[in-house]
Amino acid sequence: MNDNNISLIRGDSGQFSITVTDMNGKEVALNDDDVLTFTVRKTVRNPNIVLQKIITGGELTINPSDTEGLTFGAYIYDIELKRADGYVDTIIPPHEFLVLEEVTY
Questions:
Q1: How far does the chain reach from its first CA to its final CA, in angstroms?
Q2: Do 7 and 100 touch, CB atoms closer than 8 A?
Q3: What is the DSSP code string of the chain?
Q4: Which of 82, 28, 76, 73 is nearest to 54 (CA)?
Q5: CA separation (Å) from 52 to 24, 28, 38, 67, 100?
Q6: pLDDT over 80 (residue 2)
Q7: Tens digit of each residue's pLDDT (9 = 90 or more) over 84-101
Q8: Can you list the domains of the chain with their CATH numbers?
Q9: pLDDT grade, residue 103 (50/70/90)?
Q10: How, if at all, do strands 6-9 and 88-100 pair?
Q11: Does 1 score more than 90 pLDDT?
């Protein structure tokens, strides 16, 4: 991950730590009922979800099976926080998710 852009070789594993912070950079504690959702689409306006994961324990885990069927190239992702009280915030707005070519498969 570089400046919230993610590059991952197709079919590889990826693990990324996700920390929610306030405007002052102070870490925000999440409750057990709060949900962080990672969503990937081909473009922002494309209605089809390519990959979606619920982030648990502050770790986004991408398994080989999550990307092995994807076409190489650029996608867009974001991460949204939904709190149990109804508050919603996109904590990482749309950024690039690159699926890179592989040699060994």
A1: 22
A2: yes
A3: -BTTBEEEETT--EEEE---B-TTSPBPPPPTT-EEEEEEESSTT---EEEEEEEBTTEEEE-HHHHTTSPSEEEEEEEEEE-TTS-EEEEEEEEEEEEE--S--
A4: 82
A5: 29, 23, 6, 11, 18
A6: no
A7: 999 999 999 999 999 999
A8: 6-100 (2.60.40)
A9: confident
A10: parallel
A11: no
Any residues with CB less than 8 A from the CB of 13 and at least 6 apart, and which? 61, 62, 63, 64
pLDDT, one tens digit per residue, over 61-81 is 999 999 999 999 999 999 999
Q: How far apart are CA 96 and CA 82, in angstroms?
A: 22
